[in-house]
Design goal:
alpha/beta; 11 helices; 10 strands; 16% strand; disordered C terminus
């Protein structure tokens, strides 16, 4: 894969069908600043596929394949194999899925590609709900968050996808956040330079599902890291490094700013805070 890119060239975002303040669109624009034009993207059914383009229109200025829900990493694996047969080594192959297309419906093809150590990157852009189908609960939905099919709030904790991917022994695992673009771009550059499989998990809030205003997307994303619930780190060839040291602001400042947590009790908020106090230093996304 390439290890450099023309960061001045806009390869995503010159008009798209996403909502104002869409965290997924911000993530796409930031990532493409690192990946560059020599990139092929596969995206399963998701908001990102919808806003990425349809028919004769596309937001991507690189090849972009809209796949079925369960198979973006498998399609990316096939593209990688075809490039390898032709001796083409300087193209980034990236599968880019949402919560369902990565952690749930698409997990089988994702774990298979990781097990094979495919020469590719998989991105999970995490808005913590199934927003393309109306905001339902998924495995990436946090504890106590309200969704359209869970008015009482989720009763179990969030699946720790970075830890699961780390267990595959792949080249590179990283968490990222759209509120920290330099950190995100640097991680994509590292992933693009690897010879095997890389996984990047991006916090990309959805204002509709989270119950915030469109202009609060980046601020709320930043609060998630500053309070310790979304740790920024990387695992590079087995070595773990935190890439940002937060000030650890009160968790309540993050949770109570969102409509999806409007029913949180003081005890439940304290539970979140106790988790950060006791476990910060591991990946915060287990909340």
């Amino acid at each position: 894969m390439t290890d450099s890119a023309n960061t001045a060239e806009e390869l995503f975002g010159q008009g798209h069908a996403g909502c104002k303040g869409c965290g997924a669109a911000i993530a796409g624009r930031q990532a493409m600043a690192a990946l560059g034009r020599r990139t092929i993207i596969t995206v399963p059914a998701s908001c990102m596929a919808t806003l990425g383009g349809g028919n004769t229109q596309t937001t991507w200025r690189t090849p972009f394949y809209h796949t079925l829900f369960e198979c973006a990493p498998a399609v990316a694996s096939g593209i990688r194999a075809a490039l390898d047969i032709q001796g083409v080594k300087d193209v980034n192959v990236v599968s880019w899925g949402g919560d369902a297309g990565s952690a749930d419906i698409g997990f089988q093809s994702l774990t298979g590609a990781a097990e094979r150590q495919e020469h590719m990157i998989h991105v999970l852009y995490d808005n913590e709900m199934y927003m393309n189908t109306g905001g339902q609960t998924g495995s990436q939905t946090p504890l106590y968050a309200i969704t359209t099919n869970g008015a009482l709030g989720k009763k179990v904790r969030k699946k720790n996808m970075p830890a699961i991917m780390e267990a595959h022994g792949i080249d590179y695992v990283a968490s990222a956040n759209i509120a920290f673009p330099a950190d995100l771009i640097a991680k994509f550059q590292k992933a693009a330079a690897k010879e095997g499989f890389s996984y990047i998990h991006i916090l990309a809030p959805c204002h509709r599902g989270w119950g915030i205003k469109p202009d609060q997307t980046v601020d709320i994303a930043r609060r998630a890291t500053e309070c310790g619930l979304w740790e920024l780190y990387e695992l590079d060839q087995g070595r773990r490094t935190r890439t940002y040291e937060p000030g650890l602001t009160p968790v309540a400042d993050y949770l109570r700013a969102q409509g999806r947590f409007r029913n949180l009790t003081d005890a439940e908020t304290a539970e979140y805070q106790a988790y950060v106090d006791a476990h910060y230093g591991g990946w915060g996304g287990k909340n």
